[in-house]
Specification:
about 375 residues; alpha/beta; Isopropylmalate Dehydrogenase; 2 domains; ten-stranded mixed sheet; two-stranded antiparallel sheet; IsoPropMal-DH-like_dom; isocitrate dehydrogenase (NAD+) activity
Length: about 375
């Protein structure tokens, strides 16, 4: 009997095995990704909880400088063949052109068809932050990020630089469907919270961001396609829909962030809006994201590689830790993700252990240990 029981438990453990690829990449990525791993390993163990295995994988500008490739083929092969998800740290993409180099995270999104970047920006109840609970859905594969640029010489001998921008009906529709589906999911989750404790009281809403008053062809196609997602599917009848020009979106987001629920935007606009929104909750070091496709998810903190503080234990690990929560959430482990979110919120609410970006003196490890203790 004992032998059968052991075999049964081993079978459960095998079924719950989750292999996660860890790609620290550059700068503070090498500090915050180990912090996220520590938190995952500190989750309480139950019969149904995931059993994590981790694979270290290479990518990044520093890897390119050493080996001539930013995203090794081995990394892609092992992600596809061995992993159920991944965590990506940060990349130090240079602001000037470097021959042969392109961003590995942009390439990773394309190779794994991670077509939506899901970026929640929410305040923590019990703190002095502005009240907001906003989810930004950023289309993840197109726009100016196709990186098709060129320089020509005009008739006067002056250089003229061009950048092609791609907006397709296919990619726009997928991003729009993600936005409306997430609006329904968030509304379902909110219905389980007492009305007095909700940050969002109204119907779910999707705000479409564009600049079609100027870019009438590309942003016009984006706007029309995302609108058609709701207009042609009755299951979204309970979701409100509105629009914002990208410039007025930024203005209004800072003035009244509580007015927004789910925001969906083309790649570049979504990148800018989500970084700006991080200021409303205190720091880029708090804001997570998940690169989501139909078959794979990569958690990724919104912040960059911060080379000025790399290796000094000053980096805020919370964005990476929340990204690990998002990874679990999109893999179907909602209760484990909720535990991570609650532990992070508890540390922020208490306000005693804070990294320098939040006005404190705590180290990366101090914050990580505090979150693990709450778990």
């Amino acid at each position: 009997m004992a032998s059968l029981l052991r075999r049964g438990l081993a079978t459960v453990a095998q079924l719950n095995k989750v292999t996660i690829g860890l790609i620290p990449a550059d700068g503070i990525g090498r500090e915050v990704i180990p912090a996220a791993r520590q938190v995952l390993e500190s989750l309480p163990k139950t019969e149904s909880s995931p059993r994590f295995e981790f694979i270290h994988l290479d990518a990044g500008f520093e890897h390119f400088q050493k080996h001539g490739v930013a995203l090794p083929e081995e990394t892609l092969t092992r992600l596809r063949g061995e992993c159920q998800g991944a965590l990506f740290g940060a990349v130090s993409s240079p602001s000037h052109k470097v021959a042969g180099y392109s961003s590995p995270i942009v390439a990773l999104r394309k190779h794994l068809d991670l077509y939506a970047n899901v970026r929640p920006v929410a305040s923590v109840a019990g703190t002095d932050q502005k009240q907001l609970d906003m989810l930004i859905i950023r289309e993840n594969t197109e726009c100016l990020y196709i990186k098709q640029e060129r320089i020509e010489t005009d008739a006067k001998g002056q250089k003229v630089a061009y950048a092609d921008r791609k907006i397709s009906e296919y990619a726009s529709r997928r991003a729009g469907q993600m936005a409306f589906n997430m609006a329904l999911m968030r509304d379902k989750l909110r219905s389980q919270v007492p009305a007095s404790e909700r940050l969002w009281q109204d119907k779910p809403k999707v705000t479409i961001v564009h600049k079609s008053n100027v870019l009438s062809v590309t942003d016009g196609l984006w706007r029309e396609t995302v609108r058609s997602v709701k207009e042609t599917n009755s299951k979204y009848a309970g979701v409100d829909m509105d629009e914002q020009l990208v410039d007025s979106m930024v203005y209004r987001m800072f003035r009244e962030p509580e007015a927004f629920d789910v925001v969906v935007a083309p790649n570049l606009y979504g990148d800018i809006i989500s970084d700006g929104a991080a200021a409303l909750v205190g720091s880029l070091g708090l804001v997570p994201s998940a690169n989501v496709g139909d078959h794979f998810v990569v958690g990724e903190p919104v912040h960059g590689s911060a080379p000025d503080i790399a290796g000094q234990q000053k980096a805020n690990p919370i964005a990476a830790i929340r990204s690990a929560g998002l990874l679990l959430e999109h893999m179907g482990y909602a209760s484990e993700a909720a535990r991570i979110y609650q532990a992070v919120d508890g540390v922020l609410r208490e306000g005693q252990i804070k990294t320098p970006d939040l006005g404190g003196k705590s180290t990366t490890q101090d914050v990580t240990d505090a979150i693990c203790k709450r778990l």
